[in-house]
Amino acid sequence: MAPRFGFSDFWAKETRKGTPVVVKMENPNYSIVELNEPDEAFQPMEKTRGKNAKQVRWVLLLNAHKAVGCLTWLATLFWSLLGSAKRRLSFTHPLASERLGRDRWLFTAIKLFLVASLTILGFELVAYYRGWGYFQNPHLYIPTSKLEIQSLFHLLYVGWLSLRADYIAPPIKALSKFCIVLFLVQSVDRLILCLGCLWIKFKKIKPRIDGEPFRNDDVEGLGSVYPMVLVQIPMCNEREVYEQSISAVCQLDWPKDRMLIQVLDDSDDQSIQELIRAEVTKWSQEGVNIIYRHRLVRTGYKAGNLKSAMSCDYVEAYEFVTIFDADFQPNSDFLKLTVPHFKEKPELGLVQARWAFVNKDENLLTRLQNINLCFHFEVEQQVNGVFLNFFGFNGTAGVWRIKALEESGGWLERTTVEDMDIAVRAHLHGWKFIYLNDVKVLCEVPESYEAYKKQQHRWHSGPMQLFRLCLRAILTSKIAMWKKANLILLFFLLRKLILPFYSFTLFCVILPITMFVPEAELPVWVICYVPIFMSLLNILPAPKSFPFIVPYLLFENTMSVTKFNAMVSGLFQLGSSYEWIVTKKAGRSSESDLLAVTEKESKKTPNQMLRGVSDSELSEISQLEEQKKKPVSMKKTNKIFHKELALAFLLLTAAVRSLLASQGVHFYFLLFQGLTFLLVGLDLIGEQMS
Predict the structure, then answer these.
(1) Which residue windows are transmembrane per the record (predicted)?
(2) Tens of pLDDT, residues 307-346
């Protein structure tokens, strides 16, 4: 549109004279239209041209084509998901299904909830189509007169409404309020931990070494300056990782005469025993002070293995002991960064290092685990170490003062969390702990859901076993009252019991039930705003994982069923509360480790590697090397996890009920949470087990 100037109206009044004339020509190609004002030609013209029937038909056909294409894409996606599920169910070996055993009680309860929800949903659908009820209105009019009752089915529906409003809704409301309070308390605890971590970062607080006890680069010439250190590598059937772990430990920068390495092998596979023994022999030939130990009777699992190793007579000559699980690969300067912290600190019993993961980016499951473990080490361990001088020992990548172990009672076989057990008992005896966030040791996280689930079951059933066993000792100990309160209320109850309880009860039980009992509906901030805020706090130590915040939130709710089941089993000694299954490893190494090993091997000659070996030993080593090179053919099997599948169908049924009631946030949460349970139940996350 042309600009309209202010003087145009005035100019038009002065020049407009006479009668307007319209001139028409014969057979014109154009026409002259009467203009009453000079600016009228620049005004927008109304679009009066209409569409004919043919154009309308084409527009409708194009819109129909787009709609059909969208529906086809959705149908293809849904059909692909069904096909994947069908193949998973059809080709899964019967032995590959999850063995419920004595933990069947939870699966039975979930099935009962599922059957009840389907029954109620069908009941309400029939009532809706007969005009008796509405999904959106929780406060329905309940007929009381017999004249208003139309049939027996109507009578049953009226009875259900009365039962729901008077007897079912009140206890659900009370339970939901109780869980919300626990949820908020745990959220406050998590927020305080994050604030403590920020304070540590702001003030640059970290443990300091008093003096420089090891300033000489020639470690072999210092003699008694270096304390005697015992290094233990407990393992059991660790075919994939034994070699890299032993290699990393044997390259620790410490005087060889001041260090002894114990390879504690509990393998029941003869071929693996021979491989590990040959690896130990190889490093022993290179001058490393290393021995191989194998127990004939594997009692007590890892705790029994460590207890047996500490009973050797030569252990009395050593002052410190450090432990590395079979998949851990410490840097060569590990001992120089940890042991000096014990100097002039007789009350210090433990120095714990941080874990780092070589396979954190392997798949979605490892990325989600990395978020949890980064928060555990960066926030929980560091804050508790700085402000309380106490935290749970992680079982590996730590250095213990042997005197602290002995005064605390040594390794006990009473639980599956022997590391937490010894840490609590050492704390009750007055020993202090230090956590080094800057010292990292490479290791692996489970790459399959089955391995991760078994690991989490052990990690959450063991603390409840330990809580039952040591509660009396905590109450009767001589430590300060605030330390007792921290142990009981925070360390055990809030972070080990309350967290899995409210997470499973609130989001996997109460939320789907409230879809069928709308009088007890949960507010939006409970299922949306607070969980997202807590997920943001958890993801702060791993900022690169921010794009995975939604999968992380959904997966944590999915894992709540495993953690809740483990917590109840450990607390009441149900099911497999004392079951120890070695976590499956993939045997992955970092790129720098692979380059270092390759460079070192290239510099060696066969004579240097096999110096002092007899002909029989040489032939045996050659056979073992050939055995290691042979690929082990293992068929990957897919698991079916019954509890997760049952919960998936329960949540999806509740999502349908929420959709009928036009509940936006509730519907989307239940839908995506149900799909997450479905994917996990069909073992479609992570790698499959071999």
Answers:
(1) 64-84, 105-129, 487-516, 522-540, 666-685
(2) 999 999 999 999 999 999 999 999 999 999 999 999 989 9
* Selected catalytic residue, list 266, 325, 421, 683: 266
Q: Which residues pair with 441 in a beta bridge?
A: 355
pTM here is 0.80
The full length of the chain comes to 690
Q: What is the pLDDT of residues 63-101, one digit of tens each?
A: 777 778 777 776 776 677 666 656 655 554 444 556 555
Write down the CATH number for the domain with range 229-445: 3.90.550.10
Q: Calculate the alpha carbon distances from 574 to 106, 256, 261, 565, 600 in Å.
A: 11, 48, 38, 9, 51
Q: Beta partners for 259?
A: 229
Q: What are phi and psi of 399, to 5 degrees?
A: -115, 125
Q: Determine whether 266 is an active site residue.
A: yes
Taking the alpha carbons at both ends of the chain, their separation in whole angstroms is 73
At 361 the pLDDT is 92
398 Cα distance to chain centroid: 23
Residue 218 has pLDDT above 50, yes or no: no
Q: Which residue has the higher pLDDT, 200 or 150?
A: 200
Residue tagged active-site, from 325, 327, 419, 421: 419
**Distant-in-sequence, close-in-space partners of 687: CB < 8 Å, separation ≥ 6:** 362, 363, 365, 447, 448, 586, 636
pLDDT band at 612 (very low <50, low <70, confident <90, very high): very low
Q: Are strands 398-401 and 320-323 parallel, antiparallel or unpaired?
A: antiparallel
Q: Is 419 a known active-site residue?
A: yes
Q: Which two tokens stand for residue 269?
A: 């596979």
Neighbours of 522 (CB within 10 A): 22
At 94 the pLDDT is: 46
User: Is residue 626 very low, low, confident or very high in pLDDT (cuts 50, 70, 90)?
Assistant: low
Distance CA 584, CA 684 (A): 18
Phi (first) and psi of residue 7, to 5 degrees: -85, 0
The CB density around residue 364, as the number of other CB atoms within 10 Å, is: 15
For the beta carbon of residue 188, count every other beta carbon within 10 angstroms: 10
DSSP state of 165: I
The contacts of residue 159 (CB under 8 Å, 6+ apart) are none
Residue 204 has pLDDT above 70, yes or no: yes
Is the pLDDT reported for residue 284 higher than 70?
Answer: yes
Separation of alpha carbons 498 and 516, rounded Å: 26
Percent over 90 (pLDDT), the chain? 58
Q: Which of 441, 557, 515 minimizes the C-alpha distance to 665?
A: 515
Which amino acid type is present at position 413? E
Cα-Cα-Cα-Cα dihedral sign, residues 326, 328, 333, 335: negative
Distances in Å between the Cα of 260 and the Cα atoms of 214, 227, 492 are 19, 12, 36
Which ranges in the chain are annotated with CATH 3.90.550.10?
Answer: 229-445
Output the pLDDT for position 37.
53
> Which tokens belong to 142?
């309940």
